Amino acid sequence: MRGILAALGARPDGARGERVRRSPHFHDGTFHNTAPTRTVTPGGSTLREYLFGKQRRTPRGEVPLVTPGAPVTDRGLHLTWYGHATALVEIEGRRVLVDPLWSDRCSPAPFAGPKRLHPMPVALSDVPAVDAVVISHDHYDHLDMPTIQHLTRTQSAPFLVPLGVGAHLDRWGVPADRVIELDWEESAQVGGLTLTATEAQHFSGRGLSRNHTLWSSWVIAGEQRRVFYTGDSGYFGGYAEIGHRHGPFDATLMQIGAYDHAWPQIHMFPEEAVEAHRDLGGGLLIPVHWATFNLALHAWSEPVERVWREAKAHDVALAVPRPGERVDVDAPPAIDPWWQPLA
User: Torsion angle of alpha carbons 143, 144, 147, 149, nearest 10°?
Assistant: First the structure.
């Protein structure tokens, strides 16, 4: 029980709480999206659909994994998707780990909650030394207490998080000098990289209360190369402005899964992910937030089929790696529909 209570995290207080309250996105006691946003809309999925829907929401067999090779040391750009939203960005000789989640469940309890549909392709202890760890928001499938605590013990990189999320890390024993909290459009210089928190349209919360911490997308920029990561977000008009301010991007990591007509404003549909990628001025699109956990009613392989179809319709460069497969952004592999035999 003690571990479950700890996993719930903590609310921002003290100086951190004061900074939260000064944010232009915080009023009436919580953070807000730029446009009014509902987490669930009327007329969406019903309990009957959850219980008796015909969609196949898990793979028919084992998801093929790739064991990553030695760390890249050149000044190119390589992206490795480990599963769900977890990815390693190797950019100009630096490494950024995004939304790391190595637990078997995305839940405060190790015995309940959505269970992983495939193993991680690499042990957490075998992840190379990174220069930064970036967190998009505090939901359990993006911020995992055991993973954060392991990285605190075994790595020396700072954690870059949206406003307020540092309260969770503080409760979990992360030293204050390793936590960098940013509001939208604030940046930090880390190891020769510029990391910028940018707007997203979502919500936050690890318990019964919501929106006491901020959510964000991220820009990871070197001297020449740039990567955008959506975090979780519905489609909104701000992507074009982000592209104007911070793009164009060599590659984007785009959330494509866990969508539903019941919550269209907080998770993008695959077609919207392609539209957002185009708004951003993206080069290569790599889809994330699918295949690893069953978090919605759609079929397991539906997100990637839809994003592939939409990318072809708009001549958008797409790579769909197996978990653990490193993608060279300058020489991406042709699409190999490895997921189709499992659908």
Answer: 90
CA distance 261 to 34: 21
Determine the Cα angle at 133 with ends 128 and 135, to 5°: 140
CA distance 281 to 291: 26
Task: Give the pTM.
Answer: 0.96
**CB-based contact 263:40 (threshold 8 Å):** yes
Are 255 and 85 contacting, i.e. CB atoms less than 8 angstroms apart? yes
The region that residue 342 occupies, defined by phi over 0 for left and psi between -120 and 50 for alpha, beta otherwise, is alpha
Contact 164, 12 (CB under 8 A): yes
Strand partners, 341: none
Strand partners, 132: 96
| pLDDT by 10-residue block (mean), the chain, 343 residues | 87 97 98 94 66 84 94 89 98 98 96 96 97 98 98 98 98 98 98 97 93 98 98 98 98 98 96 98 98 96 98 98 98 98 97
